[in-house]
Amino acid sequence: MNYTKGPWRAVGTKIATEHNTVIAEVLNHCNVDRPLKWQCDSPAAVENLANAQLIAAAPELLKALEELFRHCTMTHKYWGDGCNQKEADAAITAARNAIAKAKGE
């Protein structure tokens, strides 16, 4: 994968590596009031900080999801005929899709 290796951390609305390199920043919510003119006066500070924290957790979330997916598929392979097969199939499909999205596939 070509993304900046984690861990990442949120520093206010900026996303930084463990070596303090800023790799992204969450911008204020902007509304277009007419073509090509942006008005960015909506503070949304709490939401912006929460977005930064979620983005900073992305590498760890991806790694955890990949491990969970690996273990779930192994368990499902052996116990797949149990009563939760539909739910397990749905969870495995959702995990597979989320991993693909995170990897840009």
Provide tags for this entry:
single chain; alpha+beta; 2 domains; 3-stranded antiparallel beta sheet; 3 helices
Any overview of this molecule?
This protein has two domains: 1-56, no CATH class; 58-105. The chain is 50% helix and 18% strand. It has helices at residues 45-56, 58-79, 85-102, and strands spanning 8-11, 14-17, 22-25, 31-34, 37-39. The protein is built from three helices and five strands; from the N terminus they run E-E-E-E-E-H-H-H. The radius of gyration is 19 Å and the shape is elongated. The protein starts with 7 loop residues before the first strand and ends with a helix. The strands form two sheets. It has a three-stranded antiparallel beta sheet with strand order 1-2-3, covered by helices on one side. A two-stranded antiparallel sheet has the order 4-5. The protein has 105 residues and is an alpha+beta fold.
Layout of strands and helices, then pairs:
Blueprint lengths: L7 E4 L2 E4 L4 E4 L5 E4 L2 E3 L5 H12 L1 H22 L5 H18 L3
Antiparallel strand pairs: 1-2, 2-3, 4-5
Can I get a quick summary?
The protein has 105 residues and is of the alpha+beta class. Helices cover 50% and strands 18% of the residues.
Strand order of the largest sheet: 1-2-3
Quaternary structure: single chain
Radius of gyration: 19 Å
Instruction: Indicate the proportion of strand residues.
Output: 15-25%
Q: Number of helical runs? A: 3
Largest sheet: 3 strands, antiparallel
Determine the N-to-C terminus distance. Answer: 11 Å
User: What is the domain total for the residues?
Assistant: 2
Number of strands: 5
Mean pLDDT score: 75
Low-confidence spans: 31-41
Helix content: 40-55%
Q: What characteristic shape results from the CA principal axes?
A: elongated
Following the backbone from N to C, one meets helices and strands in this order, namely EEEEEHHH
Structural class: alpha+beta
